[in-house]
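Throughout our pipeline, every protein is held as a single compact record rather than as scattered files. The record that follows is passed on verbatim for readers who wish to inspect the format.
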Amino acid sequence: MQNGKLTYNGRAIEILYHGNNKNILVIILKEINQIAYNAGLKNFSINDYDFGRKFSLLGKHAYNIGGIPSLKFEATIDLTQDEKIIHSNLRKSYKSLINQGEQETEFTIINIDNLDRKQFEAYRSFHKRVAGRTTRTDESWEAQFQMIATGCAELIMGKMEPYGLVSSTFCSDFGDTTFYGAAVYDRDLFQMPLAHASVYKSMMRAKRRGQSLFNMGIICQKNTVSDKEYNIGNFKKGFCNKLSCFIEWHITVDRGRKS
């Protein structure tokens, strides 16, 4: 639970498999409702990628239980393409920024093969320093560490002389898709390409792991969100040459359900 919502790194819930079996889907949604109910939440959201001129099974069931749909856009990179093609699809200015960042930054990879709790705690402290406060629960931090320990996530930390730790990028694998998750960059050094090289390195490492997609997350249109959120989305969009879309269903918790 984050900011009053059930999330995965800030994203709505994604049902990875239900086999187009209505009974399985009903059981899954009842379980999600129960989790939300027990947490005292009023609603939850689920993502539906299988949509078109006709309802998907998920969309039909979400509609029938009173779900409200909204269209979302996201930046995704096809990792099955040749690395040269992926690089050519970058925003023109990013190419030199990535090169500069790679030359000036020393990267450390925290993953199942290099499970370093001390380095992870440095990342956590760095996040608190940049944010100016504690923004997440101890449980959410521990969940991230356990994801690294089980091999479904990795953390890339970047150090630069004489500043020390200046960037961190946390990404996680779900099936054949890697999700760009929590990222922190030193705000006092925004004139330097801290994020570009770190994100691109995460992307290429996912490709070498055999992942098919790299999901940068939701992109919001101008005047629909704060300038900060729009700029973050615009940054993400620079890593791909096209956007994809999906339906996010917002569902009110059935308060009649009790464990």
The chain has eight helices and nine strands.
